[in-house]
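Sanity check. The docking grid for glycine depends on where the pocket ends up, so I'm generating a full predicted complex first rather than guessing from homology. Inputs follow.
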Amino acid sequence: MNQQNILFTNNTAQALDTAINNIRPNGIFVLTDKNTAVNVWPQVKAESMLMSEATLITINPGDTNKDLKSATLIWENLINGGATRHSAMICLGGGMITDIGGFTASTFKRGIKFINMPTTLLSAVDAAVGGKTGINFNGLKNEIGVFSPASHVIISTRFFNTLQKRELLSGYAEMLKHGLINSAATFHKLIDSDPLEIDAEHMLELLKASVEIKRRIVTDDPYEQGIRRALNLGHTAGHALESLAMKKGKPVPHGYAVAWGCIIELILSHTHCGFPTNTL
Ligand code: GLY
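Predicted complex below; grid placement will be based on this.
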C-alpha cells in the first residue's frame, strides 16, 4: 500500500494547496455532508483560491447514509461534473465521509486520487488514516470496500469547536485505545488530559502522537493480516453494544461503545488468557 502523506497543521488552507499542487489534478471535487457544508465548507472555500473552483458534492449525514444510494449519488455527480481519471476528490467531514469518499474515489474509473480532511476528532484519529474505505451493505457495517490510502491526510483541530461534547469524547475513546495498545505511559498521559478543556494546539500534539501509533501499525501490516488487528481492540464487543443501542432506538456514539468494548475485552483477557489483575 502506498504511504499516506499525513500533515498536522491548523493552517489547513496552505496544507490543502500544497497537497493539490502535489497531485496536479485536472478537476477538484469536494465531498461533504449537509451539516459540514454549512459549518465548515464556507471557511475552507473562502481561504483557498483552488477551492473556489472546486465542485461541491453534498450527501446526507450519518452512518445510516453510508450506503450504496449515497455512493451512486457521488458517482453520478462526478460524471455530471466531468470528472476524469486525473480528477481528485477532497473528503471533508467525519468518518462517514472519509469512508464513503475514499471508496467512491477508489472505484471511480478504477481509482482517482483523494485527500482526507477530517473535521471530527474520531475521523482524525482513526477513519481518515490507514486506507480502510467502504460502505455499509445488507445491514452490515463496512461490508463493501477496499484498502486504498488517501494521497494526503490533513489533520487539524481547528474545526472541533463545531463538535458536541459527546463527539469529542467519542474520538478521545479511540485515542485511549491507541494508548492502551502502545504503552502505559501513553495511556496515562492521555487520561491525565481533559479532552473538553485542552486548547486546539495541545490537542493537535496529542493527536499527532496518537495517529503516529496507528501509522506505525498500518505501515507494518497494511492489509490487517496480523498486528493491525490490535487496532480493533474494543470493537468486537463495542459493535455488538452499538448495534443493540441502535436497535433499541437509542444510538450511542461509536467511541462510547468502543470504550465499553475495551472494558469487556480486557475482562475477558483476564478470565480467559491470564491478563494480570493489577494491570486490569
Ligand atoms: N479502525 C481500525 C483500522 O483502521 O484498522
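Relevant for the grid: The pocket of glycine is lined by residues 126, 130, 132, 228, 231-232 (CB under 6 Å).
Also worth noting: The chain has two domains: 5-161, 163-273.
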